[in-house]
UniProtKB/TrEMBL annotation:
Domain of life from the UniProt record: Bacteria
Domain Alanine racemase N-terminal, chain residue ranges per copy: 20-224
Protein name: Pyridoxal phosphate homeostasis protein
Keywords: Pyridoxal phosphate
Entry's family note: Belongs to the pyridoxal phosphate-binding protein YggS/PROSC family.
InterPro entries the record matches: Ala_racemase_N, PLP-binding_barrel, PyrdxlP_homeostasis
Length: 230
């Protein structure tokens, strides 16, 4: 089974799980995390129907977005301050914003490009020291501070769950969904309407994320790795 076929298999499974959760298939976006493959792998995924790709390094998202402008490119990695102009130029959605100083640099970069940059606020729901993200208690203040920036649009929240523990993953995803509801209730109507996205769930735990409200799942190995097994 090649990349195109694996993508189609995962996409079909995502749709099935979404429908089983009482939602429409189009309610969940599958982002193919292509950080482990080169242009040939991206091309194969495109042939399979992929339109949204995730990258975690500027050195990868910049050339790939230039080579495949027909795709939508998501930045999902740690934000390096000095690379923000490149990230903004390449990204349709930045998933991993959790510092106001980075938001302010995104604002300046987006203004120079004449665009409004969609972002998600990364929240460290599990509290693991190894994971990035704002603490849940500080998330609402960061969302509101970012909302004051005219070239930054906060679309929702993102988190990474503890690896290898499905119960802990479900707890993290439920916590992010509840936090998003709390924040949305505090936002002005115009901002609340745009605050709809929950990016949560990866190759090993997206099935736990969708019933708990995920609108974006980020899947890499299950699509791009021949050796991946659940």
């Amino acid at each position: 089974m090649g990349i195109a076929e694996r993508y189609q298999k995962v996409a079909a499974e995502v749709a099935e799980v979404t429908v089983a959760a009482g939602r429409a298939p189009e309610d969940v976006l599958l982002v193919a995390v292509s950080k482990t493959v080169g242009p040939d792998g991206v091309a194969a995924a495109l042939e399979g129907g992929t339109r949204d790709f995730g990258e975690n390094r500027p050195d990868q998202i910049v050339p790939k977005s230039q080579a495949f402008p027909e795709a939508r490119w998501h930045f999902i990695g740690n934000i390096q301050s000095r690379r923000i102009p490149e990230i903004v130029a390449a990204s349709s959605l930045i998933h991993s914003l959790y510092q106001l100083r980075h938001a302010e640099k995104i604002e300046r970069a987006a203004a120079e490009l004449g665009k409004v940059q969609d972002v998600l606020i990364e929240v460290n729901v599990s509290g693991e020291e190894s994971k990035s993200g704002v603490a849940p208690a500080d998330a609402a203040a960061l969302v509101k501070a970012c909302a004051a920036l005219p070239h930054v649009r906060v679309r929702g929240l993102m988190t990474m769950a503890p690896a290898g523990d499905r119960a802990a993953a479900r707890s993290a995803f439920a916590g992010l969904a509840a936090l998003a509801d709390e924040i949305r209730a505090e936002l002005p109507e115009a901002e609340a309407v745009a605050f709809t996205e929950l990016s949560m769930g990866m190759s090993d735990d997206w099935r736990e994320a969708i019933p708990l409200g995920a609108t974006i799942v980020r899947v890499g190995r299950a699509i791009f790795s021949e050796s991946y097994q659940e």
